[in-house]
Protein 1
Amino acid sequence: MVVGRVLNHIPEYPAKLYKSALFRHILITGTTGSGKSYTASRIAERVCRDLRVPVLVVDWHGEYSKVLSEYTLIEPRELPLQLLTGEPGELSVMSSIFELTPPQEYILEKVIGQKGPSKIKSVESLLDLVEALPEESSWFRESKLSLHRKLSLISRGGYSDLFKVYNAQDEALSGIVEGRREPLVVDVSVISDLSVKRLYASLLVKRLVDYSTRRLKPLLVVLEEAQNYLSRQAPVKPICEMLREIRKFQVGLVILAQSISQLVEDALANTNTKIIHSVKSKQDLDAVEKTIYMDYSFITLVPYLDVGEAVYTTISLKKPILIKVE
Ligand SMILES: Nc1ncnc2c1ncn2[C@@H]1O[C@H](COP(=O)(O)OP(=O)(O)OP(=O)(O)O)[C@@H](O)[C@H]1O
Ligand SMILES: [Mg+2]
């Protein structure tokens, strides 16, 4: 698949991205306006059409329906996500985003264990169950109240229809991913609360990645504004783990971020393909220099690249090249 053309080379020739590289993850970075989303949209389109790999775009700003020529657009309310699955470690997304303390996690596990996830019908009834727990001690009471406060965010303001506590989800997911020739765009920009948006987006990725790995189906996920999932301060654990583990399966992530110095190490170390548009901040330039070995003449070009131009490295290349994405 072509991503653009190689610059500074006569005759010019196409810069390629191979299917095998998709599943070893891609990082796209650059300052604002340097061309990250445009690049991701070209990749999404061609991966779907030419490589026949389904693509999910988690559309943070609601811009992909303007830049893609073909797509299927889904509003989060049309795809309510399952909060609980009954699987081990299932609280890790909620726990990362709501910064649950160990006692709060313990309480939540206790409530779910008592009743069984399939018996809890709605977010409200989950909250009621938390409320009804007998208070064993003062720490318990405090943790319970604060857990209740955190969870009540997703039952307010119409957010509760974004989530289902427990329902078999596979059918809904298979309906949206199977046999699709155009990217699936989920517009999360309609969710205004930042933690609810992060929770919905992270669960969406988790559910779809789990679905694809269980069925040994390929999938590419485009994650805009990746600092919301992969920042050093507040990483969403299951998404970090995906970067480490899913290359065993045919599931790849495309991570877009303006500032790579703010991202967890996994985001740099575990992305084999990197597309570096113009980077101007000293901190981020240092991070680029640490992550990719390139000649001095190359690194000095990075701040002055034009829109759409990028330093490109991928597994099939011996050393970084300069490209124009088109
Ligand atoms: N390779 C390209 N060829 C032609 N036009 C491009 C190219 N890349 C980007 N552009 C145009 O430049 C503008 C900015 O690009 P884009 O939105 O992709 O930047 P960005 O890096 O995602 O910015 P932000 O950080 O603000 O999201 C857009 O109008 C886009 O159409
Ligand atoms: Mg963008």
Protein 2
Amino acid sequence: MSKINKIAITGATGRMGQRLIREISQSPHCELSAALVRPGNPLAGQDVGSLVDLPPFGLELSDDISHVLRVSDVVIDFSRPEATLKLLKENSGTPLMIGTSGFTQEQREQITQAALSIPIVLTSNTSVGVAVMKKVCKEMAQAFGADYDIDIFEMHHRGKVDAPSGTAISLGQSLAQVPGFHLNDHTDRSGPREKGAIEFAVARGGGVPGDHSVIYAGEKEVLTLSHRALDRSLFAQGALRAALWLQDKEPGLYSMEDVIGS
Ligand SMILES: NC(=O)c1ccc[n+]([C@@H]2O[C@H](COP(=O)([O-])OP(=O)(O)OC[C@H]3O[C@@H](n4cnc5c(N)ncnc54)[C@H](OP(=O)(O)O)[C@@H]3O)[C@@H](O)[C@H]2O)c1
């Protein structure tokens, strides 16, 4: 990996955006080509270093999407669905690593369409551990069968706006592929539990970067498979790995499982 890759980030002012700026500044494999802020943000024009308490980068924060796309080999996006869709509209082929979560079904279809001409990794969780968990939790559901109830529990920091998390939903979608299981689309929890219905439980609080558990409850035993992110740099490092992997790929929609080769 001797080539220096030019990587841009969106949502530069956000928790993940700032973490990524620091990760990229320390990487020998890439350099920060641009950092996008919301149009009209007064920070536009200021040096990127001032945003993350680092010495000047010699690079200004930008609110110009077309400039950001033009100067970059790949873009990493951790923002909000509406901002991601806007980025896609202006993008005619720059590879994109999308870490944003909370897309509607219709918005996901727009991303799938865009992936016909752009290489895109779309993942609600860039950690290697969660990619492994997705694979293993399906095998466990197959082994237990629908006599066991499955619940997915997630907890995140108080600032997270979508619920259940994109990771919890995608774990649920993987599990729902196992015969005998389906996603519970009822929000009403009164009455007996429906056989095979996968349910979600959500908590928000403090600074928790991301906890996910899949709980298999039988009549006489309970088994819990858990993943805990200890630090947001986990997601930033995974996103960087995915972005570097993405650069020489053909247009298409890829997952974190593709990136880690599982
Ligand atoms: N895939 C993963 O592994 C992973 C890990 C962590 C988080 N996430 C997801 O990544 C996303 C960002 O997380 P975060 O914790 O960094 O959130 P955050 O701290 O709230 O940051 C969101 C960023 O998006 C920008 N933004 C919001 N709306 C915008 C708009 N309409 N146009 C342009 N920019 C806009 C914000 O700009 P302003 O400052 O101007 O509002 C901010 O820079 C969320 O969807 C989160 O669930 C994914």
Protein 3
Amino acid sequence: MKDSVMPVQDFETLAVHSGPGPDPVTGASSPAIHQSSSFVFRNTKHAADVFALKEAGYIYSRVTNPTVAGLEQKIAELEGGTGATCTSSGLATNLLAFSALMQSGDEFIATQKLYGGTAGQFRDTFQRSFGWKCLFTDPTKPDEFKRKVTDKTRLIFIESLSNPEGVIPDLEAFARIAEDAGVPLIVDNTVATPYLCRPFEYGANIVVHSTTKYFSGHGQSMGGAVVDGGNFDWMKHAAKFPTLATPNLSYRGLVFAKEFAAAPLAMFNHAVGLRDLGMNQQPMNAYLTMIGMETLPLRMRQHCENAQKVAEFLSRHKAVKSVSYPGLPNSPYHSMAQKYMRNGWASGLFTFDLAGGYDAGVKLVENIKLFTHLANIGDTRSLIIHPASTTHAQLTDEQKTAAGCGPGVIRVSIGIESADDLIEDLNQALALT
Ligand SMILES: Cc1ncc(COP(=O)(O)O)c(C=O)c1O
């Protein structure tokens, strides 16, 4: 934040005032869009020092960009981390973070209850292209994670509030298991956002985000972020994490965990990860996301209150078999929501299962009027999709059910419109199923 003496207590204030503040050159109140691929050096010594990481500065937008740096600062402040690195999409964050922590042949343990795209990335491409083996494990049984730790384990990965089923793992239990194993706990906090939950406060070491969702809120900018908690002792576990804890030859032998002790992972992700893998975020996207983030608390409150009302309505409706939303007292994750989410709120995303099965799912989507039919989540407008005929269509019925997306399951991302209007719309469409 620009003025470090500002007495910030509340997240609402932080959401507006975090980040770079007014432009230092022009005084413009909103962040400037530095739509430039490269940056002019003052002289040859300046150029050499910035290249050698002896002086902070901008070289080339694949590695760092002032507008993207503003978003990184804002996200780190909202999460309570020490630094962040933004990427072109949410999925790219996993590649960036994992490439800093894993060598070919290493293993990691991840929750089975994951966003489908992440599950595919872990199961297929990470194994095939990089030799990183994922052990998928039930997030309601932390002890099973513990049993799977070996000397090849390099990280544990969970979602704080899973997409789409709303599974909320016991964050403190996972942080203890990761600490005992001497590996970082990575939490995907996309659906909860730091407004509902700040995983570093429960012992997580790295937070990842798809900023495409609630951070932006408008559905107009893809992006992701890896946030460094600055709380993992890489030097203590140097043999496991040579990238961070042993001399880096491309930077005159510096050791990232020593030279940049506050946020070594964020620094490495820029200086090596983005440099070599190139999934940098575009300045225009960073700008749009920063603007969106200023209203994050207002939007999240409305998403949560609306989702609660809509979920309660659906849970009483005769055409609906079940509703999977942690805000409902009968949810197996209700107590975890009370423990880890602000006010016990459970974000705006959930699924419900229609008594009429597959055909009813298709009919509901065809007849709904206010909900937009698309594959994103976290927009201001309400969104709907029938996973069995779209995102999960390639799976067998058993696989669909195991993924929480059986034939009659509908996924909704409840927006910030009037809850009464949303309920009326669902009511008329359900009558036609
Ligand atoms: C929880 C979660 N993590 C990661 C992603 C991937 O983000 P992106 O689509 O920005 O790559 C998504 C996308 O839906 C998500 O829901």
